[in-house]
Amino acid sequence: MTGNPTILSIAELFNEECVYRVPIYQRAYAWGTDEIKTLLDDLKRAAGTAYHLGSLVVAGRGDDQNRTVYEVVDGQQRLTTLYLLMAVLCHGDDDKAAGALTAWNMQLEYECRAESYGVLLERLRASGEPNQAEDVVVQDGPSDQENEEMETMCRPLLDGYQIIRQYIATSEKTSEKTSENRIDLEKLRTKVRVVRDELPPGTDLNRYFEIMNTRGVQLRPQDIIKARLMSAVSSAADRETIGRIWDVCSDMDHYMQCLATPDERTRWFGEDWSSVPPIDWNQLVGAAGSGDGDGSVKSFKSFKDVLREALNEEPLQAERQTQPGVRSDDEVEQYRSIISFPAFLMHVLRIYCGGESDASGDAKQISLDDAELLRVKVARIFSKAPENSEDSGDSDDSASAEDNAKRFAATLLKCRFLFDNCIIKTRMDAAAPSDATEWTLKCCKENKKERSYYLANAFSNDCQQELIMIQSMFQVTETGNNHKNALYSMLQWLWGVEAVDGFAFLQRIREYARERLERALGLESLKDAPTEKRQSRIREAVSRGVGTEHFIFNYLDYALWVLLAPVDGSAQGEDVPVVSIFGADEPPTIASDVRTQWWEYTAQSDESMQALDCKQFRFRYRNSVEHFSPRHPLGGGAPDNVDDFGNLCLLTVQENSRRNNLDAMEKIRHFNVGQQSLKFQFMVGQAQKENAWGKPQIEKQTELWVQLLDALSMASRSR
Fold this sequence. Notes:
Elements: E1 6-9, H1 10-15, E2 18-22, H2 33-45, E3 51-64, E4 67-74, H3 76-90, H4 95-100, E5 107-110, H5 114-126, H6 133-137, H7 144-175, H8 185-191, E6 192-198, H9 205-212, H10 221-231, H11 236-250, H12 256-259, H13 262-269, H14 281-285, H15 303-312, H16 316-319, H17 329-332, E7 334-336, H18 341-352, H19 373-381, H20 398-422, E8 425-428, E9 438-440, E10 442-447, E11 452-457, H21 464-477, H22 485-496, H23 502-520, H24 531-542, H25 550-564, H26 589-602, E12 624-627, E13 648-651, H27 653-659, H28 664-670, H29 678-690, H30 695-717
Parallel strand pairs: 2-4, 2-5, 3-6
Antiparallel strand pairs: 1-6, 3-4, 7-8, 8-9, 10-11, 12-13
Helix pairs in contact: 2-7, 3-5, 3-7, 5-7, 10-11, 10-15, 10-19, 11-20, 18-19, 18-20, 21-23, 21-25, 22-23, 23-30, 24-30, 26-29
């Protein structure tokens, strides 16, 4: 580095007359919904003091047409997302915003995709209009194959633009123009800063790029915290135990039993390898600490020494091998955690702090944003030790710091066990499409004969599948890595019970979901209001077009699955028991109405009709609001209630952007309806039955869902 980095506001970054060129050795733009929403959430919270978004590592490449050219070595995904965000803001409804962005002099180029990326980026910046990649890249001259290749390359950029546009529209509708829930343009331009660090001339960029992404050079925030914990304890056995707990817990994509040694599995998870880990530190250390009795010599290692050792270690993932006595069933089917380890640490910290309250009695809100990992977490763990002490072992409060370090490590181990055994994972299939996520909820069971383990369903059959459905409903709603409030609510409940009962766990998640629904519908102050007033408020909350909260769509699909899965395919009128989600012994009349309509739609025998399928429904990352009857149909003449809830559903960004201008009946022919959301399937069922889709059908669907949502939200008011 130059040692003299430049700190730029977003306004300065985009107003500067320069070219940022992404070199050929860098990958193409690859950020998806999770990464983009995480960045936008960070920007939305930027207020007051300066907010540092991160660094941009560049190499100077001289001048090109009187513009300084920088080669982007690190930070190109963030820079491209900022570019797309500014392009969206340029063409919003806010004239002031558009005016503030007129002085946009910065240019972004991708070296290996100069033509296709360049045309798309400039078109988005200039007009913000293209909804199809082919609208941008198809030009005179290229063959069909070349056009297809260019469209494929541009698709991630266009999807990113649509995700941002949807996010902005949703924020503006749901926030009712309050600054707390919107990206404030002026604060974005002036308060958000980027550090641009220029490499010295002559740097071998290919070598630098390779080294920069290796563990041996970059120390992550979680590595620093691990070193702090280990340096706070006096005995070698304690340090080793903390290090092993950390290593086992930090690999979020494998069950802990697979990573622990045989001795650790018995000490931590009991003789059956599946018991909740103890909080007692001496039991966790076991025989390894037998030489550290009262008469033994104890010595603290300095934070610097432990940190230096951490720098020289190879990552656990690189050297991990299956421990003796463990059959790696999870190696055959690849599982992925729904959260990263740094973000998981923030959940553990909240639980570790034990629900502290301020003077008003409200729980202190420890951020679930892993960007706060170092600033908040270390201070909380060592709250009794001087926060500015580089070496906690030199503090007079070292005994307290040692106890805190052990307690936090034990808390981490137990929380990770609860996460492994009670929270869904994704099962990855290389042959499946990227949006065809399969959810799994397994736990480790000991095979005593072979002294190995196998993976079994975590809960009994009467609640296993619904636990998967309701958890995956929250996962596709809270798609980002941070701010998973539903996950925290689950972990907090699991931590507080002596034994985990599956049905009690399901009931707790149901209650949390109902509370979320009540807030999303704006019914907190209307608990005792007349039905007409409640339903009027619901109709307003759900009929906001692309600004309608995604949670409402997903909760409705969950409720429909509970109502319809047992009755799907059975004879009309057959008495099929359904687990109640209405908080009452008898479901309301609207539940019967919904089932009756579904039976009528599925009973249609015309072979030309698309088949509806409730039993195969799964939650996918459908994160773009679709208008079944488009707002701008190719033939013109959109109904005046096009933004009403009866005309809306969720699709993937790619599906929506490719077919959003087709009329409803044409969309039915282009979709595999049985793979879509249940709300979408209901619209298809009615359209096929009546062979039409317009204002009357939209009104009928809206009324149906308003009544059902009212009944579902009543459950939280009846408790």
